Amino acid sequence: MPIDKKIEICNSAExxxxxxxxxxxxxxxxxxxxxxxxxxxxSLHLSNPKFNESTGELDQERKSKIIxxxxxSGSSDNLRLATIHLGWDDAATVIDEQGHWKDTDxxxxxxxxxxxxxxxxxQSGRTILIENIGHTEKSREILGTKPEHLAxxxxxxxQLISADLDLPIQEVLTKIGYTFDMGHAVKNxxxxxxxxxxxxxxxxxxxxxxxxxxxxxxxxxxxETLPEGDKNRxxxxxxxxxxxxxxxxxFFRLKKQYCPDVSMILELNNDETGAGTINSIAYLxxxx
Length: 288
Prior knowledge:
The chain is of the alpha/beta class. It has one domain (3-287): Alpha-Beta Barrel (TIM Barrel), CATH 3.20.20. Helices cover 38% and strands 13% of the residues. It is built from ten helices and eight strands. It has helices at 3-6, 25-34, 60-73, 105-123, 147-165, 169-173, 182-187, 196-203, 248-258, 275-287, and strands spanning 7-10, 18-20, 42-45, 79-84, 127-131, 176-181, 207-212, 263-266. An eight-stranded mixed sheet has the order 1-2-3-4-5-6-7-8. Helix 2 runs parallel beside helix 3 (60-73) and helix 4 (105-123) crosses helix 5 (147-165).
């Protein structure tokens, strides 16, 4: 398979950014073999961790695959970043009212499992980036939808790795950052609680990558151009820029203020990645 088919998105950001989403260790090996040295800010987007909701244990097959991909990608000096979601659903079981990681059996087990993955990434020379997720479930607060979730996870994971490797915690903290997903933040309907400016200010210089895509309004109709059963038919996010409700002019003003040098990845649905990429870049140009 040609390398351009493995590139999830490559946009015109400066500095340019490329993101891969390998489905297997073999796919990772092929990417490493074909990766051109000219590419900068190359990032992996790792599979979501899959937890047992009763025990807090990770699915061992999924965990092993993530770890092997990180180990394999360590052969490339170009591939410095790896983005991952936290994977656990119920924030209330691990985050207390003050926004700190809880000291309970299940919270500690979840942190331990995540630390195992982050430690391998760190030992492979990667900076692991925690991404905020897009979720609108009303019955519970999903871990990863608020800045304090990401900050608490980072601190707890770093504490465990620091103890494991007998390293100063500040050294470990420099190898864990954030991927801020603009579309996810808007989709969650939490902007009154935490505005985009709040997100950028609170995560600050620890944002190493930004994902951009548009979000449709909540009352948007199904996309009739897609067949019945296609998960993208009613998906609100990962749409072409300018097609949804996001005020991109305002976002870019804030980006210039808080993180002007952070690269962006344009993340679109599979049905949007052809002409959608071209149309999104055209939209960005007309904003200038």
